[in-house]
Structure formats: C-alpha cells, structure tokens
C-alpha cells in the first residue's frame, strides 16, 4: 500500500519503521525534518506539508501530540484532507478527544474519504518492536482497507465499533484505568510503608498473586523506586487525558468519581512542581498526605 | 506436625483437606459439627472446644468469619489460648483488623506462645486445590515452625514482616485494591456502554493488553455478565474489609481517598438493597448513576 | 448617563427598570422584542442590534445567558464593540468564564474602551427591587465611571480587584459555595430523616443557631419541601457554573475536591432526568443514596 | 431544683454558673477539684464521686470530653447511675456517639430513671453567658422535668425528638456542616488568592451577601487570618466528631461523600503535624494543594 505518516515523535518513528518493514511505500511529514533522516535512509519519501503528503496515498496515518496538532495537520488549506483522495482512509492514532474525532469523522464523510480512529496501547519500545496494541473503530470497510497497516504496527488489533469516536473513548478509558492503578498503588504503598512493610514487598505480593499484569508491574516499580521522577509519560499529558475522559463522560452524562479524585491529584501535582515528572508522580502525593518525606 | 484447625467454612474445609493430604495429624473444631463429617472420615479428629482442640498441638490454625469470631475462639475460658502449649504457634488466616491482630500478638507473647498472621488470597476453589497465596507475618522463628503447614495450604508464601499485624494490613490493602478495580471497571464500563461500546468488548481490550491479570478477568466478567448478583464474596463482607482498611489507615494517619469513595458505594449498596449481592455489585451503582437500567 | 442594556431575561428586565428609575437614559436590545414593550412604555428606546445600541452610550450593560451569548453580542460585525465609543465602558453582569472575561478585557483594551465585570448575587425578585449585590472588578477609573449604574441596580457594591476576571472568579466561588451548602444540607437531611428527625426540624435548629443566613434558609426550604422540583435556577445552569469554577481553578492549579463531588452529582442528575429541576435537586440524590424514596 | 453537674471544663464551668444564677441547688464533681473552687465559693456543693453526686438530685447534668469519659462517669460501681433516684433525669450535654447515647438510654430505662440528650451549640463564651443553643431529645415527660435547667443554660431550646440519640445525631450533623463550611471556604479562599483576590475581600463579599451567618464569619476569619493555628476546637476533636457522624451515618446506611472528603483532610492533618491546631486548619491543606506556602 501507499502510506503517508505524519508525526515523527518517539511513537511515530517506531511505527514508521514497521510500516517500511512490512513492505509498504511510505511518505513522511514532521514539523522538523531532522527526525525523518533515518527513515529517508531506509527508503521513505519526504513531503513538505500534510496536504502534499496526502496526495496519492491509500492511507494516511497521524500520530501527533494532541487535539490542536491533529486538527492542524488535518484541516485547513495545507491539511491532509485537502490533499486526500476520496477513497483513501485517514488512520488517527493519537489519544485525542471524543469530540474532535467525531468532528473529523464528519469532515471525512463530507469529503468522501474515511476515518479510522486507532489509538494504541504501549510505549515507544513497543512501537519500535511492532508490539503495540491497537484499538480501532470506524466503518468496517474502512478498517478492512487499512488492516495491513494496522497489523504492521501492532501485535494485536481490537475492533471496538463502527464509529471512530468509540475507539477514542476506549483509549481514554484505558488511560483512566491506568491512572486508577497509580492512585490505588500510591495509597496502598503509603499505608504499607507506615505499617513497616516495604512497598517493594507489597508489590511483590500483589504482582505475585491476582494483580499479575504489566500495569501493576510497570507502575509498581515506578512508584516504589522513585522512577516517577523521570517523565516516561509526563504528568501534564496524564492531566490532559484525565480532562478528556471527564469531558467524554460528561458528554454522555456518566459520573466518574475515581476520575474526579485523580483530577484533583493532577491539578495539585501541577501546583506543587511535578509538571516535569511522570504522571505516576501523583503517587508521591499520597505519601506526602501520610506525612512521609518525598 | 500435630495441627488443630478452627473454622470449617468454605475456605477452612479446603485448607483442612490439604493439611491432611500433606500428612499432618489434624484435629478440627467448628460451631456446627456436620461440616466436619467428611474430614473425620478422612482421619481428622474432633474437639469439643477451641481450648480442648489446642491442647497438645504444635500449631493451631484459625479461619473464622471476623474479628468477633476470632476473638471468641482465641480468648476466654474456652478459647484456644487457654489450651495452647507455650511453644506452640497460632496461625490466624482470617481477614481481620490490624488492631485485633496486634492485641492477640500481645496475648500470645504473655502466654509464651507465638502468633503468625497469615491471611490468604484466593477463593474457595483455590483453597480446595491448595492453590492459595499466603501472606505471613510474625517472628521468623514462629514462621519457620509452621512453614510446613503454610506450604501445605498455599501455592506461594510471602513473608511480609516480623510483626503479625503487618500481614493483616497487607491483606487489607490487597482487598482495598480489588475494590478499586471493581469501582474503576464499573465506571469505565458505564462510559463504554453509553458510548455504544459493549462492556465485554472493553474488557477484551483491557485484559488483552496491559490489564491481563486475574483480578481484571474475574471482576470484569462479574460486572459485564451480571454475575455480581450472586454473592461469591458478599457485599457486607466487602464493606467490612473497607471499614478495616480505613481503620488501619487512620491508626497510621494515612488518608485513602479511593477507599473513601468505595466506602460511600458500599454504604449506598446496603441502603439500596444490595446486601445479598456480591461486593462487585457496587459496579451497578456506577451504571445507575449514568442513567442505565439495572 | 446614557446607558444601553442588552439581554431582557428575568434578571435584565428588573435591572432595566431600576436604571430608568434612577433617571438615566436607557436603550435596550434583546433577541425578541416583545420583552422590551413595558420598558419602551416607560421611556426606554429600542436598538436593532448590539452595535446600533452601543453607539453614543456612556455605558453598555450586558446580562445574557452564557459565554456564547456574551461573545455573540460583544464581538463580530454587529457586536457592541463595533459601535462603542472609545471612552465608554462595558458592564458585563452575566456569570461567565474567567477566560472569556480576560479575552473581552483584552479586546476592549485594544479598542480603547473599558470593561467592568460586575456579576450579581440575587434572584429576579432582588433584581426587580434593585436589591442585588454587585461584585465588580476592573480599572478603578472604569468602575468610577459607571458607579451610578452599578448603584442603581444593587443594594451593595463590592469592588474586588482591578482585573475584570477577578469578579468573574469571585462570582463562581460564590456559586460554588452555594452548591456546597446544597450538597451538605442534602446529606445531613438524609441522615436526619433516617434517624427519625424531620428534616424541617433539622433546618430549624441550623438556621436558629449559627447557620442563620439566607443561603441556608432558602436552600433548606427547597430541599425539605420538595421545592427543588421547580427550576428557580435550573440544574443545567448549576452544572455549567460548576464546570466554569473547575476550569478557572484548573487554570490557576487549584484543586477543589468539594467541587469535584458536586460535579459528579450534577452529571448524575443530568443522567437521571433532573435536567428540568432546580440545581438544589442534587440533594435528592443524597436521599436516593440512603435508600429513601423520592 | 436539686441539680448535680459532672465535668468542669471550660464549657461545664460556664453552665454551672448559670445553673446557680437561676437559683437551683448545685452539687459538682470533676476529676480535679481545683476547677470547682469558684463555684464552691458561690454556694455549690462538692461530691467525691459521680455516684455520691447523683444521690438525691432531681437532675444530673454531664459535660465531659468524649464517649469514654461519659461511659466512665455514668456506669460502673461509682457511676452516677448507681446513685441516681429512679424518678431523676440525666441530662447529657457532651457531643458523643449515637450508639453510646442509645445504650445509656437503655440503661436508664432499666434503672427507672430518664435520659435527655441535650448537646449544645456554642463556644465557652456562650456557655458563660448562658447563650448556648440546646438541642434536646428524650421522652417529653423527661424534657419537661428538666426544662428549667435547659433554659437556664441556653438562649434557645430545640426539641428534636423523643429518642435521646436523635439529639446526638442532630449535633453531629451540625458539626459536620461546620466542617463543610471550613472545607468549602478553604478551597474558595485558595482559588481567590491565586486569582489575586485577597481572601479577606472574598469573605467580605460572602458574609455581606447571602452567607451572612456566624459560621461564615467565625471560620472565614480563622482561615484568612491564620487564627486556625490556635486550637479553639482542636483538630483531633474535629476528627473525632467526623468519625462519629460517619459511624452514625453508616449505622443508618447513609453515604456522606462530603464527610468522606473532610475525613481525608483530618487524617492528613494528623499526619502532617496539625494535631495541635484548630480544626479549621484543614483549610490550610487546600492552600498547600494549590502550591501556596503556609
């Protein structure tokens, strides 16, 4: 297939490599061209704008930072929609708002093209290894059309619905549940510590019994080792996804009391100087509340 | 070893069988004797009181309903302590309060005997199969003394500290984190459903990615299939454990905002007629809050 | 003074009458002209657009529904700013977002005119009687310039700062604290009722002791008499103001745990069919949670 | 009437003076006799134990620290019940648990005497001035019997029910609502401060409009002036009353989400060194959460 890819951050670069490896033709665009060099060396082409990139592609994949970036590369005079063929499909992999996905879906419908929302679970190392999990939603014909691309970048593809915004919400729920794991572990670790039980010991018990999932292993380690000080996924991004899930839930009239508690943690983290830390740093606030020094 | 066991509920019976299978001598006591019949047929002996049972044993294991029951079988004129040899060890497997464990530890110390708090993770089927996870705390010498018993009933033994109440707290934290999974999944499933994504599909995505642990599989299924209507672990017991973890946390001055949210759910569940349901029924309150019919 | 007034809802009409009574020249604009008839009979003039209305006025007062309405009547080709003299002042009395007030303040500064944000406390009967409380913020010179108008509509004027958005936030905090009174009284009344104490009796004790303020009298009565079923201030408007205070607080990195609890109430109220009730209807959710029939 | 009074703390002393002033015969008991000196000088008699004090009285009033103290002076060999005449009435003015009041009511019923639960609203200065508010519950005949005493100590008497525990709950709800005012003002003041509005200015607006009640005036001042550092009503006592209202609410299956939030504040306050401050010090935690220095 002829594939365009916009957004060469740490996730996008890994995805791009796997598209090339799967034998597809690839054209890339990024705000700064330097990031593209290794891909161009492997045979990718460069385009000077989203619009120029989109022309002639079967599929255009976007992996950009947030709602604003996705809107900017999709709409407007130089946006991908202006260049996209009517029978082509836009694969949006960013974690963005339900509302934006719904509005882009409408724009594609008017244009005659398709939108598949396909947010991913996994960090940059998984992207590089082609081991992402992909949750896709869109018209079945559109998903079928880009299935080879989705399969090239992920180890597993979940088809969650025929409206693109459904995948956006599933992704937001996933991130919401990760934030719940972080908060729960933070509270539990603080109690363990004040009881004289090493938090590492608590994590060993948890992950050695019925909590034996990567989400507990990864975040249990970040919390107990202080690893949260280095931003794998920065706290403001966690705060943003929390905001997005609360907005989506409000649009559907669904109260999320746990998300509200987590929201207060993120806002406090921003106020107390944790903007440069990982989102798991909210666990340090539970320690602080318990009178433990950070 | 010569082992006594008090409490033949669904957990205790399974544990008793595995002690017998491991070749230990076993004497049992229960409020109603009928439950003991199959064990007596396999060679267990019967005692008419905790005190009578305790006499001459190397270890006495208790698996009873709650604080009141544990206090009743341990202390008082007919309690096990009155009959226990000074070098014997009491293994307490019930999920009870930190405060009670601390006070029983002191009583044993005065008596010259030992207390190992060894609460377990797992349901009756795991108890029957000897596949429980055991989190034990107590003086290392005491744990060593009863290690064969602990290993007979569990697939894995975690030694979490040298003060018995530490294991009590670890168990309470474990149940607290399960309640957080239930609440989080309940909220997430309600949002998925109102977005038009089947909750089963959401669970498939979650457990197929980084949430692939038994706790998500078990409770995800109870929540999405309505299985919560049958009390595997009844809601009032969940409410009790929530109360105990909040009490332990208060004793150590540790705020647990998530436990507070869950507390309000349990209290509401009791008010709204869910006392006969599984503790995972609190997930149905998140659906109700979203205007979905239950 | 020559005064223009945009927005003849139940609040705006009362305000307009008091401006006329104070002897000012008044021109009005409203989406539907019928509302203006009584005022025109008393000597007010009519303008066909916000822009036409603004021309030649010393002050233009807006009292419209929300952010969208305020933006629409202020900016754009037919907006009041297009017609406003450079030395005139815009008095904005609506409860709107901090962000919009800040952006309108900047627009006025570019235009050479002034903005005084002057939200009010009080219901339509207070507006009709000229008994509103006015919290104003803006440059002191601008406030001085429109003081006669502010004093004509209110019984008391509070000057809270020199940046217009400060009054917007003070008003949002006021509404937030009212929502806290509603939630607290709802919880307390539910507990009283289940204890066998009539909620009216509870309110009598509260307002007869240290809670003797209008906010407890008004909302205590709405809650205990079922008066919340009639929308004095409709629940969606309460939900909107809750959203605005959370947004303002997030912009300043201030967690508001109470506002988060109230948020969940409003979202649930929307889901459970209370959109047509008064915002104090969230108190009925506390009753429902306690298993009391509504 | 012949009246006994147990408990000469800052509240009890004021109450005792007013009983004397009203012309009743008064006998007092306190753990340390020094506190009684001024009263004895005014004509009060001294008794060496609650039991001795109770003998021959028409009414015995208790004003002691907490559940333990009330239980100790009421029950047991030297308790007041042992000395009380069958037709006499015990007036309990302490803020204690619903459960204890219910159990003392039963003990009095068995004894043939009466119990009137009559907790008060007001601080020591109000007690000294006879300006307390009294919320009483008990059998109407019992209340009538001690009405002269209740009227001697308070400016207003509210009769809230015929079961003594009802007054206990009303008092706990009152303290719960005060704690809600503190938390709400703490959050609002933090937001005002970060917006550049002086918290004092916010309080002026609030108490000058619909929040014009003593509870806002008193706590608004404590919060904005740092007065919360001096314990008028110490934080651990606030934490205790919060615990009692949550227990009463749990006994009646009433969730209290606001009380849960406040609970987390008190626990955190205990952990972070605020045990020596006023209970309004929890407002300083809202400031801290917003990144403001305390």
From TrEMBL, chains A, B, C, D:
Keyword Metal-binding among UniProt keywords: no
Pfam families in UniProt: NAD_binding_11 (PF14833), NAD_binding_2 (PF03446)
InterPro entries: 6-PGluconate_DH-like_C_sf (IPR008927), 6PGD_dom2 (IPR013328), 6PGDH_NADP-bd (IPR006115), HIBADH-like_NADP-bd (IPR029154), HIBADH-related (IPR015815), HIBADH-related_NP60_sf (IPR051265), NAD(P)-bd_dom_sf (IPR036291)
Keyword Oxidoreductase belongs to the record: yes
Domain of life where this protein originates: Bacteria
Domain 6-phosphogluconate dehydrogenase NADP-binding span(s) in chain numbering: 2-161
Domain called 3-hydroxyisobutyrate dehydrogenase-like NAD-binding: residue spans: 167-285
SUPFAM superfamilies xrefs: 6-phosphogluconate dehydrogenase C-terminal domain-like, NAD(P)-binding Rossmann-fold domains
UniProt keywords, alphabetically: NAD, Oxidoreductase
Protein name listed in UniProt: 3-hydroxyisobutyrate dehydrogenase
Classification of source organism: Bacteria, Pseudomonadati, Pseudomonadota, Betaproteobacteria, Neisseriales
């Amino acid at each position: 297939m002829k594939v365009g890819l916009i957004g060469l951050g740490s996730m996008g670069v890994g995805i791009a490599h796997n598209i090339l490896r799967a034998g597809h033709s690839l054209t890339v665009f990024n705000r700064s061209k330097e990031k593209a060099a290794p891909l161009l060396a492997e045979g990718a082409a460069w385009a000077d704008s989203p619009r120029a990139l989109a022309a002639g592609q079967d599929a255009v994949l976007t992996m950009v930072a947030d709602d604003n970036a996705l809107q900017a590369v999709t709409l407007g005079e130089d946006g991908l929609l202006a260049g996209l063929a009517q029978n082509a499909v836009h694969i949006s992999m960013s974690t963005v708002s339900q509302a934006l996905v719904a509005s882009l879906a409408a724009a594609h419908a008017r244009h005659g093209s398709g939108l598949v929302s396909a947010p991913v679970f996994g960090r940059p190392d998984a992207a590089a290894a082609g081991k992402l999990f992909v949750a896709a939603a869109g018209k079945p014909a559109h998903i079928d059309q880009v299935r080879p691309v989705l399969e090239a970048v992920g180890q597993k593809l979940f088809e969650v619905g025929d409206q693109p915004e459904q995948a956006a919400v599933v992704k937001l729920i996933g991130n919401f549940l990760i934030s719940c794991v972080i908060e729960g572990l933070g509270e539990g670790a603080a109690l363990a510590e004040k009881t004289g039980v090493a938090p590492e010991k608590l994590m060993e018990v948890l992950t050695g019994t019925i909590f034996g999932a990567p989400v507990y292993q990864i975040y249990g380690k970040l919390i107990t080792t202080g690893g949260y000080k280095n931003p794998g996924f920065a706290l403001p991004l966690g705060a943003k996804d929390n905001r997005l899930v609360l907005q989506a839930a409000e649009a559907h009239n669904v109260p999320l009391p746990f998300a509200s508690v987590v929201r207060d943690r993120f806002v406090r983290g921003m106020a107390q100087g944790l903007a440069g830390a990982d989102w798991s740093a909210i666990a340090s606030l539970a320690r602080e509340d318990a009178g433990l020094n950070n």
